[in-house]
Structure formats: structure tokens, C-alpha cells
Design a protein that fits this description.
The complex is a heterodimer of chains A (256) and B (198). Chain A has eleven helices and no strands. Chain A is mainly alpha-helical. Chain B contains eight helices and no strands. Classes of the chains: A mainly alpha (256), B mainly alpha (198).
């Protein structure tokens, strides 16, 4: 086979390996992957990939949890709910206001070693328990106790979002609202506040359509118009113009 | 992340078959991310979209890792995923032929981070990257993929054949054509550059 001429060869060699992502890039992308996997959940949990997630992953998450996860996280729900809808790009996770969305690859676009793709197992519900409430009382020996790992709140937050999403799918918006409210009460704003707000707005529109739900959706859309969830909130809350006293569930939810 | 292990297959006895250890995602990520990122760029993914494409690749890797049977090399398997994701990317994105290494953003950061090189070497590499991207953008998709895998990532014809799901003869002929096109593009580029010089 003819080889490249020396000039072309030297250009290729000069460029080979010259470019690679920075540590920040690597970490940001990895966080995006983990958030996406955590929220989509089923496949990785069911197939055991999650088992392979090592402590290093968790440490990475700790390191990354401080940074805003931004619109990317819950956009995965958007994808999950509306597979044809664009999903939040990774770089939106670092608060870029606009980004070109990338649609997920089709199933047939994914190569598998085995010719037949095994069916995705149903997602185990409520895999992660919401952590119990932390004591707010002053602990006299608190200074001797190591600070709780920030991985827990992030994990818990991801789990709560996933569970709330499951609730919505199961037609239990009040349960989703209660879950989100309890989380906020116990953990404060967290890292995924925007996503929680979006899911809460959708849940409220489903549970109690009316002016309150409408106002809440509008507040969300005003404050984060660039959110990948904006379209979904808008669509879910179209019905929110109905009377306030209508409810999809008998139980009145506590708003987060 | 805590997870229920009730329904999970034992990774050692799961879809991979008994005895084949499931590679840990962290290891796969750390080993492959540079290669995937770099290759996505050289295949023509715009810089602004590279993170998304790489993320997509690794989400699929994460979800399908337990299915990896070890029949192929891990790198080949990951690259196969990358090629599919990039193809999908091009189906859904307009091309910008002029979108080449811009000398800003991530590339510059990556080059600056390489402290063991002097500024002259860094600039030369940057220039080489720019030129390379311009030349690669002259190749059609199939040739470009084969050229990147063979010349930049130095994979064998058999590995490339597996990745692009073609036979080795087809790959060899594509590579030959790609080299020819690349050199033609290089001659044109040099002629233009020479014309600009006083």
C-alpha cells in the first residue's frame, strides 16, 4: 500500500497526540456521563455496570458536585420522556447559555458485540433511599467529626429526581411533589435546584392545575428560559389554566 | 451510588460469560477519553460539540459495558461506538468545512498545559493541527475515518475493518484513496500558502 509522502507524514506526526482534553474537560464530561447514567438508570443498574463504578467515580463526583450541573441533568428526563427531543449538551453543564443539542443515537446505531440487543430490564424503583434528615442541633463534638461527604447529597438528589420522575410517569404527581419538598426541607437547595424546580412545576401542574401551578411554571420559565426542561414545563402546564380545585389525586400535596 | 443488587447479574458471570471480568467504567473512561475526544475532533466534530459527542459515547459505553465480551479489543469496541455516534452527529448537524482547530479554547488550554514543551514547539503543533484539520475536511467521511484511525491513532487494518464494519480489503483501498486525497489537498494548501507569501 502506498505510504504518505514524507511531507504529509511529518505533518501527521507533528499533529498526532498534540491535542487532548484538559483535566477540567475530562472531569466535566465524566460528570455529564454519570449524571445521565444515574438519571436514566435502568440499563446501567440492571446490567451491573453500576457495580463496576468504583470509589474513584464517587470521588470524582465529590470533586465535581460543587460545580453547577446545570441544565444537563434533567434534560435526560426530557430525552427519556420525549426521545425525539434534543438533550442537553455536556457543555451546558458548565452554564453556557446556548448550545447545539445533540439527539441521542438510535438503538440501531449502537454496536453490540452480540448480534441481538438484550431487552432493557425494568428499572428497579426506589433503588436509593432518601437519606434521613440530618440533625440541625449543635453537636458539642461536631468539630471532631469529619464533615459528611458531599457525595451523599448529590447521590440523594439524583435519586430523588429519578424517583420524582418515576412518580410522574406513574401518574402520582403529588407523591413527586412531596418527595421533592422533603428533600429540599432536609438538604436545602442542593446542586440540582433548577431541575427540581422544573419537575416540581410539572408535578404541580399535573396535581393541581390552576393559577398557582401556572404561576409557578411561569416563574420557572422566566428565571431559566434556556433550561432544556422549559419546553416540557410549558407543555405540561398548558392544562394549568384549569380551575385550581381540580386535582388528579385525592391527596393534597405539600409544595416544595 | 447505592444500588439494588437484587436483580443484577454477577459481573463475572453476566452477559460476558463466566470468568470474563467486566472492565470498570472508571478505568475505561480514563484510558479512552483522550483517544475518543481527539478522534472525534479529527473526524470533524466541531469543537463546541465535542464534549457532547464524547459524553454520548461514554454513556453508551457505561450502559453496555456489561455486554462487552472481550472478543474485540476494548479500544476497538469503544471506537466502534464513537464512529456510530459521529455518524449520527453528522446526520443531524450541518457541516462547516471551515471549522478547524481555531487556536482558542480547549486546544490552546491543552497545549498550554503541556509545560514540557517550549512555546515554539507548541505553536508548531498548533499550526500542524490547523493544517491537518483543513486537509482532513477535504476527505469524505468514510476516507476520513479510516485515515484518522490509521494515520493518527495507528490502528491496524484489521482493527479498522472491525470498527467500520467493512472487510480489510475495502479498508485498505479506502486508506489508499484517503492518502491520495490528503496529499492532493496538501499540495493545494501549500500552493495557496506559497501564493500568500510576499
Amino acid at each position: 500500500m502506498n505510504e504518505l509522502k514524507p511531507e504529509a507524514r511529518s505533518l501527521v506526526e507533528a499533529a498526532r497526540g498534540a491535542e487532548s482534553p484538559s483535566q477540567t474537560d475530562r472531569a466535566r464530561i465524566k460528570r455529564g456521563v454519570l449524571v445521565q447514567v444515574a438519571l436514566l438508570g435502568a440499563a446501567s443498574t440492571a446490567t451491573g455496570s453500576a457495580v463496576a463504578m468504583s470509589l474513584a467515580t464517587k470521588i470524582t463526583l465529590v470533586g465535581l458536585s460543587v460545580a453547577a450541573i446545570g441544565g444537563g441533568a434533567v434534560s435526560l428526563w426530557k430525552w427519556q420522556e420525549h426521545p425525539s427531543a434534543p438533550r442537553a449538551p455536556a457543555h451546558q453543564m458548565v452554564a453556557k447559555p446556548k448550545a447545539t443539542p445533540i439527539a441521542p443515537p438510535t438503538v440501531e446505531a449502537i454496536p453490540a458485540e452480540s448480534p441481538q440487543v438484550p431487552p432493557v430490564e425494568p428499572r428497579p424503583r426506589d433503588v436509593v433511599k432518601t437519606p434521613t434528615r440530618r440533625s440541625t442541633a449543635v453537636d458539642p463534638v461536631a468539630h471532631d467529626v469529619p464533615a459528611p461527604s458531599p457525595i451523599r447529597p448529590l447521590e440523594a438528589e439524583l435519586a430523588v429526581l429519578r424517583q420524582a420522575q418515576d412518580d410522574l410517569r406513574a401518574g402520582l404527581p403529588a407523591q413527586a411533589l412531596r418527595r421533592l419538598g422533603e428533600f429540599e426541607q432536609h438538604h436545602g437547595p442542593g446542586s440540582l435546584g433548577q431541575e427540581r424546580q422544573a419537575i416540581a412545576a410539572i408535578a404541580l401542574c399535573q396535581a393541581r392545575p390552576g393559577p398557582t401551578a401556572q404561576a409557578r411554571a411561569e416563574t420557572f420559565l422566566r428565571s431559566t428560559p434556556e433550561s432544556p426542561l422549559a419546553a416540557r414545563v410549558r407543555s405540561a402546564c398548558e392544562k394549568a389554566k384549569a380551575p385550581e380545585n381540580q386535582s388528579n389525586e385525592t391527596e393534597r400535596p405539600r409544595e416544595p | 451510588m447505592p444500588s439494588s443488587t437484587g436483580n443484577l447479574p454477577n459481573p463475572a458471570e453476566g452477559p460476558n460469560g463466566p470468568g470474563f471480568p467486566v472492565p470498570a467504567f472508571d478505568n475505561v473512561y480514563e484510558t479512552m477519553v483522550d483517544f475518543v475526544w481527539r478522534s472525534a475532533r479529527r473526524m470533524g466534530v466541531r469543537q463546541a460539540d465535542t464534549d457532547d459527542v464524547v459524553q454520548e459515547v461514554f454513556v453508551i459505553v457505561h450502559r453496555r459495558l456489561a455486554e462487552f465480551e472481550g472478543r474485540a479489543q476494548l479500544k476497538t469496541w469503544v471506537f466502534q461506538i464513537l464512529v456510530h455516534v459521529v455518524k449520527h452527529y453528522f446526520r443531524t448537524h450541518d457541516r462547516k468545512p471551515g471549522d478547524v482547530a481555531s487556536g482558542s479554547g480547549t486546544e490552546i488550554q491543552a497545549l498550554e498545559a503541556n509545560h514540557d514543551q517550549g512555546p515554539t514547539v507548541q505553536l508548531e503543533r498548533m499550526e500542524a493541527l490547523r493544517a491537518l484539520d483543513r486537509l482532513l475536511s477535504q476527505l469524505d467521511d468514510d476516507k476520513r475515518v479510516v485515515f484518522v484511525l490509521a494515520e493518527l491513532e495507528q490502528l491496524t487494518l484489521l482493527e479498522i475493518a472491525e470498527i467500520v464494519e467493512a472487510n480489510a480489503n475495502t479498508v485498505a483501498s479506502r486508506l489508499r484513496a484517503a492518502r491520495k486525497d490528503f496529499e492532493k489537498a496538501m499540495s493545494r494548501f501549500q500552493a495557496r500558502e506559497a501564493g500568500r507569501k510576499p
